[in-house]
Amino acid sequence: MKAVRCEEYGGPDRVVIREDVRAPEVTDGHVLVDVAAAAVNFTDLLFVANEYQVAADLPFTPGSEFAGRVAALGAGVSGLEVGDVVHGSVFNGAMAEQVLAPASSVSRVPEGLSMAEAAAFRVTYLTAYHALVTIADIKPGQWVVVLGAAGGVGSAAVDVAVRLGARVIAAASSSDRLRVCADLGAEAGIDYSTEDLKSRIKEITGAGADLVVDPVGDRWAEPALRAIRWGGTFVTVGYAGGEIPRIPLNLVLLKNVTIRGLELRTWSQRLPEETARARAGLAELVAGGMRPLVSETYPMEEAVTALSRVAGRVPAGKVIIRVGEDVQ
Ligand SMILES: NC(=O)c1ccc[n+]([C@@H]2O[C@H](COP(=O)([O-])OP(=O)(O)OC[C@H]3O[C@@H](n4cnc5c(N)ncnc54)[C@H](OP(=O)(O)O)[C@@H]3O)[C@@H](O)[C@H]2O)c1
Known about the structure:
Layout: E1 3-6, E2 15-18, E3 30-40, H1 42-48, E4 65-73, E5 85-89, E6 98-102, E7 106-108, H2 115-135, E8 143-147, H3 152-163, E9 167-172, H4 175-183, E10 188-191, H5 197-205, E11 209-214, H6 221-226, E12 228-236, H7 249-254, E13 258-261, H8 264-270, H9 272-287, E14 294-299, H10 303-311, E15 318-322
Parallel strand pairs: 8-9, 8-11, 9-10, 11-12, 12-13, 14-15
Antiparallel strand pairs: 1-2, 3-4, 3-6, 3-15, 4-5, 5-7
Helix pairs in contact: 2-3, 2-9
């Protein structure tokens, strides 16, 4: 089969397209999917650079998120049928004509999403929903600060929070990126490349933010934490900025702040009921018109461009690699 391959670690320009990659075979408890679209995630860049928490052995096929049709079901898999339109997530392997995924990581696509949207939806929106709802139980009218708000997880968090009635402050690195967030319904924007994050959040909210969702980390986490109200919540989701922040614990003590971590892969395995509830909540929002922001799509042959665009912080929302024919 045809697949994007990483044969040596490095930047996005290291990946190549191969036509003769061995297709996966279906195994017990797994689902084999004919991929129509694969999303580019920041994590793919980390795997290709060999900078993720766990290494992918060379050579490997990048891609952690996909949508397509079920080609075969392994023994013990129930609730799905061959031909079903599904989306799912894996560590690696999605940027290929076929992918094998554990059944617990594959689900039917909510009605109304295109293949590209379905590929863009699963990881970012589930991450955003768990941060906002499962962990923080946000309420209408609360102030939610989203860092990296124009990115994949960030734009999903803005979208979901706005739809749930929260007042969203988007933080991103340019006025263009903040405009995208405003279009998603963010009430205020902070350009954290030029403005002081902490004082601007305090200025906008008065008492401080109720919740911070942080997929960026680095030098932005601490000022955002300092701008949380007494008893507020900070959810650490990722470190796209590069550095993993070291937080002075007295900041947590003084304002009775809760800091929570969220790692989607283990949540789905360990908390299947919460995951099912989150999926149902997201399906309701999709039924109400919510769609992920897909800003760019590329054929598989242009995977280097697709990965480079995400590495360069250029696109807002999600970048998609088209694998099958039926992808708009
Ligand atoms: N915990 C989980 O389960 C989970 C799930 C999904 C993703 N993640 C993690 O969350 C993070 C964000 O993922 P994503 O898919 O939203 O990525 P993304 O689409 O690339 O967005 C990341 C955003 O971070 C900002 N950023 C700041 N400094 C950056 C830098 N040096 N390089 C790149 N971006 C930088 C960029 O926005 P500005 O240019 O506007 O600053 C960018 O839009 C990643 O670390 C990813 O691994 C974790």
